[in-house]
Each structure stands twice: as C-alpha cells, then as structure tokens.
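User: For my dataset I need records formatted as: sequence, then structure tokens, nothing else. Please produce one.
Assistant:
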Amino acid sequence: MDPGAAGSDERAQLASLLARTAAGDQQAFADLYAATSRRIYGMARKVLIDPDLANDTTQEVYLQVWQSAGKFDPAFGSPLAWMMTIAHRRAVDRVRSSQSATEREARYGASSQAIEHDDVVDTVTSRMEADAVVRCLATLTDTQQESVRLAYYGGLTYREVAEQLGAAVPTIKSRIRDGLLRLKNCLGVS
C-alpha cells in the first residue's frame, strides 16, 4: 500500500471521528482518543518531561477537543496536526505557568525577607552624618549657606531662591553649585 494513501486514509478517518465528536458521539470520541492519545501524550511529555503533568495536559487537550471539535476545519490542516497544536500550546502554557509561579514565589520570598539591622548603629550613623554636614556647612560663605539651605532644606527652586534673596537666577545657581562643591570636598564624597 502507498504510504501517502495510508496517511490520507488516517486523515479522513480522524476527520470523520472529529465531525461525529462535534455532534456529541461519545463512541467516536473514544475511537478518536484510542487512535491519537499516544501521540498527544508524547507531545505533552516531550515539552513537560514530567509524566504526571503530561497526563494532566493530555486530559485537558481531550476536554478541549470534545468541546471544540466543531471548530476543526480540514481546509487548514489535518485533524492530528490540529490536535497536536492544541497539545503543544497546552504544554507550553503549563510550563509558562509553572515558571511564572516559581518567579512569583522567589520575588515574594525576597521581598518578605526581614533585613536585620541595628537601630542604634543606624541612629549613631545618621547623627554623625548630620554633624558632618552641619560642620561642613559652616565652611561655606554666608551667601552660599543661605542659598543652599533655601534650596535643599527649604525645597525652593533656583528662581524662588533668587526672588527671596533679591539676586539674579544665574548668581544663585553659581552660589549653590560652588557651595555644593565645597560641601562635597569637605565631606570627602567622590
């Protein structure tokens, strides 16, 4: 027998079984399952590796085939190719779902880790840093100190600082820039 004819016969038989399944014929569905389940399971197993997951996915595929057999259109391919596509998509969805759950758990675990720290050390460090800033602010000229304090502690813009001090905006920008450079050098910041 010609191998092409055998493939054509199988295709026609599966198409007939799918059409009867679409009409609710349970025996046709059982015959379709018997004729294709090894290949559908094989596809699922190839993607998922785990035999239990492959079994579950195979069941989902046949449930979908039962529910949507009427949507099969032989003009777009063979019944087996249609079913294998469903199996492949289901298996890939299962892999993605599993990876997503693993990543979600990892993110949750990382975010819920309590970072231990010493409040006393934090308080002392903050106070030392504040003292250093105050000490270094004292090294600025009066106009630089006033400009930096209004901008950084008062939250004012260059224009607002200029208006408050009665100076031009470029002058205020220069004072703040020069003051910050002196603070940076005083604090030993790179």
